[in-house]
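Notes from the 1:1 (GR / supervisor)

We went over the backlog. Supervisor wanted to see one worked example end to end before approving the batch request, so GR pasted a single chain during the call. The sequence is below; no edits were made to it. Supervisor asked that the structure be written out right there so they could see what the output format looks like.
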Amino acid sequence: MTIRTGIQYFLILVLMAGVVFALLQPHKAQEEQAVLGEAAPSFRISTMQGKTLELQDYKGQAVMINFWASWCTACVNELPLLNEAYKLAGVSMLAVNVGEEADKVQTFVDRYELSFPIGLDTDMRIKQKYNVIGLPLTIIIDKEGKLIERHEGELTDMADIMSYMVQMKDD
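Structure output shown during the call:
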């Protein structure tokens, strides 16, 4: 085989790989992504209590979802406030830990006596669906399953947190 023939085979392989890549792109684009005002992407998550939760478990009720990690200073400040508001307001809430091991998460949960369900997004698929770039991220999904609020960053004021929770009840 000559060098020229080898180069031709190589170019044909590269071209074929490009075609396969291009054909697979529409599948990737069809994956659910979180968009404000649209249906929230479905998910299934394991909780610290050993249960499996799905977004559809909250069908017919508004739910607040908070993405967090124990290494995130803003999350450490925010989660105890969310916990107190959760106890007062009696709304549905799920805290999704992003990328940490269960034992580390359990230590954090015990330390701050968190009472809402804690989900483990160890493979970070839910994080990707919900376009989580920075932590913490708090979202609200209404009774119809639409993503209606997205707050990026720390919630520092109990009045702001309670207003979100009142909005959930009024929804």
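Supervisor's comment: Strands lie at 44-47, 52-54, 63-68, 92-98, 118-121, 137-141, 147-152.
Batch request approved.
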